[in-house]
Amino acid sequence: MHELAERILAHDLRAVARGLRFVDDRTGGHVQLLKDLFPHTGKAHVIGVTGNPGAGKSTLCDRLIEAFRKEGKTVGVLAVDPTSPYSGGAILGDRIRMGRHATDPGVFIRSVATRGHLGGLSQSARDMVRVLDAYGSEVILIETVGVGQDEIEITRTAATTLVVMAPGLGDDVQASKAGILECADVFAVNKADRDGADSTVRDLELMIALGTETMAAAASKSRGHVVHSNVGPGSAAIAAADGAPPPERWTPPILKCVATRGEGIAELVKALAVHRRWVEETEAGRARRELRLAEEVREGLREALIEAAVSALGEKIDAAVRAVGAREVDPYAATERLIEEFRGR
Length: 345
Ligand SMILES: Nc1nc2c(ncn2[C@@H]2O[C@H](COP(=O)(O)OP(=O)(O)O)[C@@H](O)[C@H]2O)c(=O)[nH]1
Ligand SMILES: [Mg+2]
Description:
The protein has 345 residues and is of the alpha/beta class. It has helices at 3-9, 13-25, 30-37, 57-70, 121-135, 149-154, 178-182, 197-221, 235-239, 265-281, 283-313, 315-325, 331-343; strands spanning 45-51, 75-80, 86-87, 90-91, 107-111, 139-145, 160-165, 186-189, 254-256.
């Protein structure tokens, strides 16, 4: 076993910091580390927190950390938000927010650069989550700005995606990217102390109702397709969820909160917990987990195959490109020939 893996599994704080850096740098050696750690992962509740800049994600994460710590759970945070001034567990300018947890050994905060990720930001994030999971963080929060495709992809790393909205940010539902809304498992309408929160809630309700109709239609057309935001008891299920089994079909509940004052946090924590049970205990939840692992394996396979093909064929690929450019061959036949050549090896 990787010596670093042993130390991470022994809850060594310095080792986890090194492991995360190692995995983030993706120099190649990190794969063995991840292999050693993988059998010890799968225990954490991974929660993606996304939403437009200024919606209150960091403030809300701070409150969530506080709530989870009160439950006695250890927390890991990956901040993939370039505007969140975290740095390697120490917070630079954000002391009032997550900063107060920086000295708590049960909280590990790490910022992740959004640039220069070989193999993609979401793969990096997924691997870093596994390091934290193996280290023993029981809840892992990934804060990400829901603006780019990369950031939305990251939410697929999480078991539960919390989308944070706020009134008066110009991020009312219509203006928001459909991508963020589609990945939502739970909605927080933050800044409920401001005007417009109720109208944001109504917009979301309407959007979910409309989405439910179109998704139900799509689901009846393609049987077996996994639909996760779908008709169901939604917020009512959360209220009635104590001990009861989670609903088979998940509807994203909408919860109002005021992160700055810590209001509405308990309900939010409960909704996140019920969603986790949905993921783990229902058929639909299991199907979604399987789908995501399938995506990861296929993505890995695609990358490995391309790498192998490029290193095996090398110059032949360039020659094929030139031949297509000179219209001596069509790109379809050129690709077929390259594949034949690669297979023949
Ligand atoms: N009025 C009000 N302001 C809030 C609330 N939550 C966060 N803020 C403020 O909104 C600003 C942006 O918060 P931040 O957590 O950095 O948002 P992020 O960019 O989504 O991470 C900060 O000035 C916060 O103090 C809230 O519930 N009500
Ligand atoms: Mg932030």
